[in-house]
Structures are given as structure tokens and as C-alpha cells.
Amino acid sequence: MHGLSDAFLADKPAFAAVAAEFVAFVGDARLVAHNAEFDRRFLNWELRNCGHDQIPIERVDDTLTMARKKFPGAKHSLDALCSRFGIDLTARDKHGALLDAQLLSRVYVELMGGRQIGMSLAQQGAHEETVAIRVERSYVAPRPHAATPAELARHAAFLKLLKSPLWEQTGPV
């Protein structure tokens, strides 16, 4: 499937050795995965074993679920979606994490509506049928730290520089 042998993996670090670096790299970013629940469960098992917080489902966009909603009854594998969107698969002969992530990023863009071809406001491709999908998103709480007194003071000073801000024109809500 991926072509990684035991001999190749013998000198590679276990997840526990790189878990802190992984958590720092990911931060609180949204994650995109194909068949995300599989990946999330695997990662959460490893993270839990290393004493790290788990990744909540609200932080994950699943391209498999998105594709099933957008194209019911069609094939939804990464290869099938790449073919559907005209994404070149010639470099993919095995399941490789880096190449799959690059391909998935392009599939994700297409599932979210596609790339913008130009900056023109003229309607392009008016003859094409558009399909709307609703992606359920949950509220993600803000970061658990507040602004420092110095940051609040700088913010207040900046707001005083604004001439006729909108909130002063509209009054209390």
C-alpha cells in the first residue's frame, strides 16, 4: 500500500518522540483529511497515550463526507476525486502521506468551490450547473488567553485615531 518496509522504519522515531512537535505544528488549526474519522481516531489514540489533548471533531473537515454530499452515488476515493477535478495523478504510484496531502489540498479547494480563475467580476461559465452543499460547522471557542493591559491600551489608542468610526455613528445596539 505505502511501500514502507520494516527496515526503512527501523531508525525512525515513534510517535511519542515527535508528539510535542506535532502538537506545536498543528496548533489550533483546522485539519483537512479524507475519511477524517479514521485519521482522527488514530491520532487521538496516539495523543492520548502521550498525555496530549485530543483533536475534537469540530476542528476537522472531512473531504470524504463533503464529496458524498456533493456527489451522491459517485466514487469518492482520493483517486476518483482527483480524476473528477482533473488533478494530475501521474506521480502517485503508492499511498504516500506527503503526496496525498498535496493532492487532497487541491481536492479540498475544488470541493469548497474551486479556484478563482481571475479577478473579474464578470460571470464565468454561466452555462455550468452549480451544486450547493451545506457544510455543518460547530463553534470553536476562542483561545483561552486574554489581551494584556498593554495590548488593551495600544488598542484603545489605535481606536482613538479613527475618524468617525461606524460604531459611533449607529449608536447602541
TrEMBL record:
The EC code for this enzyme is 2.7.7.7
Gene3D superfamilies of this UniProt entry? Ribonuclease H-like superfamily/Ribonuclease H
- What are the entry keywords? Nucleotidyltransferase, Transferase
Q: Which reaction does it catalyse?
A: DNA(n) + a 2'-deoxyribonucleoside 5'-triphosphate = DNA(n+1) + diphosphate
The record's annotation in InterPro entries points to: DnaQ, Ribonucl_H, RNaseH-like_sf, RNaseH_sf
Q: Does the keyword Iron apply?
A: no
List, for all copies, the residue spans of the domain called Exonuclease.
1-117
Per its UniProt record, what SMART domains does this chain match?
Answer: EXOIII
**Cellular component terms, GO, for this chain's entry?**
cytosol
Q: Name one GO molecular function term.
A: DNA binding
GO BP terms in the entry: DNA replication proofreading
Query: Which range is the signal sequence, renumbered to this chain?
Result: none
What task does this protein carry out? DNA polymerase III is a complex, multichain enzyme responsible for most of the replicative synthesis in bacteria. The epsilon subunit contain the editing function and is a proofreading 3'-5' exonuclease.
Protein name per Swiss-Prot or TrEMBL: DNA-directed DNA polymerase
